[in-house]
Amino acid sequence: VDWGGVFAQVEYSGKKWSAFLTGSGSMTYYQRLDYFKKRDVVLDDGTVVPQIVGYNEVYYTNGTQSGVAQNNAVITTSGDTTIINNPSGADYKIVNAKGYAWNSDKARTAQTDRKSFPGFTVKTGANYNFTDHLNAFVNIGYLVLAPRFNTVFDNNNKEIPGVKSQVVFATEIGVGVRYPKFAVNFNAYNTDWKNKPPYSSPTVTIASDQYTYDMTGLNTTLKGIEVDFSVKPLETLELMGMVSIGDWTYHSSGVAYLYDANYVLTDTIAYSAKGVHVGDAAQTMFSGSARWEMFRGFYIKPRYTYFANHYANFDPIYLTPVYNSAHQEVGDNRDHESWKIPAYGLLDLFAGYEFSEKVGDDHKIKLAFNLGVTNLLNTFYISDATNGANYDAASVLIYPGLGRRWTAGMRLMF
User: What is the mean pLDDT of residues 228-240?
Assistant: First the structure.
């Protein structure tokens, strides 16, 4: 990966108003080198023959005929004809052949051409202080980002066709209240994310054959509200809480293009993921905790967190009509909602004690102990899941969360 960029920012800060404007431009170049593949050969006319010679092999060609002499092959000549007898596989007779050895200056590490992706970002925001205790803010951003590297090239150094840059438009508004014993923050956000890439090279298996596919216009909308607060009714007691409610959905439909192992277009499949929720994270969360200093230096902090509206991961390529072996439509998974993981709550408990001893006239040694128990009640829960064939609990692949865990520590400061 080669990357270069420029960045600029302007800020203004006054008693009531503060604002900023940032802009950036970038260029990302991707190229994949694979040291475990056979080596490429660059012919005299500049033509690249990819992944053609392995260890102790020689590639022979006359421009129209070609063949590889394997390691331990028997090579003889008869006039202007090169005869290759390989220990296995095909033998060759090539007239006026020129050879390119695996270790010659014409052989190189298997590699792709460089692929470039320009990008830029524009972000701006402002904050207004109504009083010393009340403020409001707004942020807006527009981003054009390079796709992930592993969606540009596959593991065979093939370029995946149709890859597009990501486009993100995000807005956020918020309000904050601050007092010595009370503080609360509220914000609402909306993010439209176009051409969001998958986490890996997308493949699908149809009738035992594996295909790579390109899905154009895989778009999502992420919106929600977040609130966090802190209350200190006593000097020794602080209450904290957080609420996050989101609605993250796909709103894409179109055609997926299927390519075989040689990246030849073989078929198309219509898909639709409109209104289907994004998986991999709980979209509703509530959390509450209390930190109580029972006596000087010793505190306990219980925390409870509730997770809901968490949907299983899925691949939108499967949101298509369902066909049997006779290619008759027997079902329709278009716009099929993902399986929802059961909601769950976790109770954690933390405690600590710290004390200090004076050494000399102006120096102290501090010793701190801490103890933490996560998932105190040893609750069984599903932390993540991937949809199965029927989008239900019977076919889903689940990942159970961790049980009760203990941690303890000691810190010495001097």
Answer: 95
